[in-house]
Write a structure and sequence with these properties.
The chain is α/β, with parallel strands linked by helices. The protein has 2 domains: about 300 residues, FAD/NAD(P)-binding domain; about 160 residues, 3-Layer(bba) Sandwich (FAD/NAD(P)-binding domain), CATH 3.50.50.60. About 25% of the residues lie in helices and about 20% in strands. The protein has 9 helices and 24 strands. The strands form 8 sheets. A 5-stranded parallel sheet has the order 3-2-1-7-22, covered by helices on one side. A hairpin with a 2-residue loop joins strand 5 and strand 6. The structure holds flavin-adenine dinucleotide and NADP nicotinamide-adenine-dinucleotide phosphate (NAP). NADP nicotinamide-adenine-dinucleotide phosphate binds next to helix 4. Flavin-adenine dinucleotide binds next to helix 1 and strand 4.
């Protein structure tokens, strides 16, 4: 079955305190965005002792407008681009009165309700930034934090990195010439007020560029959308329902998913008659771009489409087709860098956003360091982060045992290369996964690992057992 969270899936609220089992590994979670909170919930319910440090004063990360953490790219018109039942955590449906695609404030309220429902909000330490994570003796990790009480260093058996990967703006290499107007990155865009009455050039063809151009059509004096490579722009509704609800079970091969995406692209309507360039790749070979309104605002003449920028000349922006426009604001909707300021680049260096991980969670050379939500699904991040957190929890409690190290590395390289082949080469596609397939694949691995753990326990119970070490020792459990 494809992933679809219904009201009946809601778990009972957690109202009583859950005792922590101090014999279990001690864990640090970095960040309380949607990835961090689902990790915290999983650890909390399992009784694992943990700290969660959040740099800001709110949970929800990117979904908090004007988040004082300075890392949120949220803007006034932002809404989710996967429908609520396909974005909700598996045991906590979104409220029934939410629209098919919830607004950012509703998403934030949903995360707050999740924390209240599972009773873990008090366990998060706010206003505290993780500044350094370094390997320590006996396979542990040393974590340095800075907060109201000053600097602190503590050791943990495992660290769950959930610091988000859409907060470090990817500015382009400078184009030739000088521009006399203002330049901002989409990360710093908050509302149409910034576009009001101005001549705006929006650069990029991702979801940020579409949303900002559409709002600019209402507020700016003129909007030019500069697209260096065309994209298939899907509508958010097809045949009267949220388009992502035409979903397939995860065991289906990728070519069927691609067929579904091709169907979605064709059903969404042509691009060229709106002046949008035809993409040089097939639907399904790029991260999905969605907009319900972009065709209408182009058709109404409120947004002009141009190719890539060639150079600047004062207040003029010159494009590769020889055309030019006057502008006083350029919005670079050119994507994000994956960054871990608290990790030594000699340990983890995601240059050009490249960071192969086993199942996008485990770094085979760094036992005890886990990444949560560090992936770019064709679908929503939250349910995948939830499954990742549940998996890591099973490792930490000994309920799951990993396969042998060579098998992990083989799978990691195979999956990474396969995913890269599916999407055109770009820093925006280095972590792309198929939502339903990822969930299905991880559920198979978790089942296999539970069987391995059971077998290892049975062997140890046998009188002639040589005392097999649990395979998850390599994954962070205390030695
Ligand atoms: C404009 C925009 C729209 C998006 N829309 C969607 C969507 O519709 N659906 C979807 O699935 N995804 C969407 N995404 C992707 C987005 O990454 C996820 O929605 C989601 O925010 C990921 O959650 P996260 O917890 O991994 O990261 P974040 O939401 O970025 O949260 C990370 C948290 O970690 C904290 N933190 C970071 N560093 C530290 C540190 N050193 N110490 C302590 N705390 C730290 C931050 O303060 C923050 O609270 C969108 C992204 C953008 C930019
Ligand atoms: N919920 C929503 O509706 C919503 C809204 C906004 C964003 N998001 C999400 O946020 C994430 C980031 O999206 P994003 O749109 O900000 O970034 P993105 O998906 O990485 O897209 C970046 C765009 O900028 C272009 N680009 C990059 N460098 C360029 C350069 N030097 N010159 C010209 N163009 C350049 C890219 O072109 P190439 O393809 O040629 O590299 C691409 O079109 C995605 O996961 C997205 O789904 C969601």
């Amino acid at each position: 079955m494809a992933y679809f969270v219904k009201p009946a899936h809601r778990s009972a609220a957690v109202t009583a305190p859950i005792p922590r089992d101090e014999s279990l590994p001690r864990v640090c979670v970095i960040g309380a965005g949607s990835s961090g909170i689902t990790a915290v919930k999983s650890l909390h319910l399992a009784g694992i002792p943990f700290d969660c440090f959040e740099a800001g004063i709110a949970i929800g990360g990117n979904w908090v407008l004007d988040n004082p953490n300075g890392q949120s790219a949220c803007y006034e018109t932002l809404e989710i681009n996967t429908s609520c039942p396909r974005m909700a955590f598996s045991d906590f449906p979104m409220p029934a009165d939410y629209p098919p695609y919830a607004r950012h404030d509703q998403v934030h309220a949903y995360f707050e309700a999740y924390a209240a429902h599972f009773g873990f909000r008090e366990a998060i330490t706010f206003d505290t930034t993780v500044t350094e994570v370094t390997p320590a003796a006996r396979g542990r990790w040393r974590v340095r934090t800075r907060g109201p009480a000053g600097e602190r260093t503590q050791e943990y058996d495992a660290v769950l990195v959930a610091n988000g990967h859409h907060w470090d703006p990817r500015w382009p290499e400078p184009y030739p010439g000088t521009f006399t107007g203002e330049q901002i990155h989409a990360h710093d865009y908050r509302s149409g007020d910034q576009l009001e009455g101005r001549d705006v050039v929006v650069v990029g063809a991702g979801n940020s560029a579409m949303d900002i151009a559409v709002e600019g059509a209402r507020r700016a004096r003129s909007v030019t959308l500069s697209i260096r490579r065309g994209q298939w722009v899907m509508r958010k509704f097809l045949f009267g329902r949220a388009s992502d609800q035409i979903a397939l079970p995860g065991w289906m091969p990728w070519w069927v998913t691609r067929l579904r995406l091709r169907f979605g692209a064709v059903a969404s309507g042509g691009l060229r008659r709106y002046g949008l360039p035809r993409p040089p790749h097939a639907p399904g070979q790029s991260h999905p771009v969605q907009s319900e309104r972009i065709r209408a605002v182009i058709a109404a003449g409120r947004v002009q489409v141009r190719p890539g920028i060639e150079r600047f000349d004062g207040d003029q922006v010159l494009f590769t087709d020889g055309s030019r426009v006057r502008a006083d604001l350029v919005v670079w909707a050119t994507g994000y860098r994956v960054s871990f300021p608290f990790l030594d680049p000699a340990l983890v260096n995601p240059a050009d956003n490249e960071l192969p991980l086993w199942k996008r969670v485990v770094h085979p050379d760094l036992p005890g360091l886990f990444f949560i939500g560090l992936l770019q699904p064709v679908g929503a991040v939250m349910p995948l982060a939830e499954a990742q957190a549940a998996w890591v929890t099973e490792m930490l409690t000994g309920r799951y045992a990993a396969p042998a190290d060579p098998e992990i590395r083989t799978q990691m390289v195979r999956d990474h290369e396969r995913n890269k082949r599916r999407f055109y080469a770009s820093p925006r596609h280095t972590m792309e996964v198929d939502f339903d397939h990822y969930l299905w694949d991880l559920s198979l691995e978790r089942r296999a690992g539970r069987k391995r753990a059971d077998a290892a326990r049975d062997d140890r119970r046998a009188p002639d057992s040589a005392g097999l070490a649990l395979a998850d020792e390599r994954s962070g459990a205390r030695a």
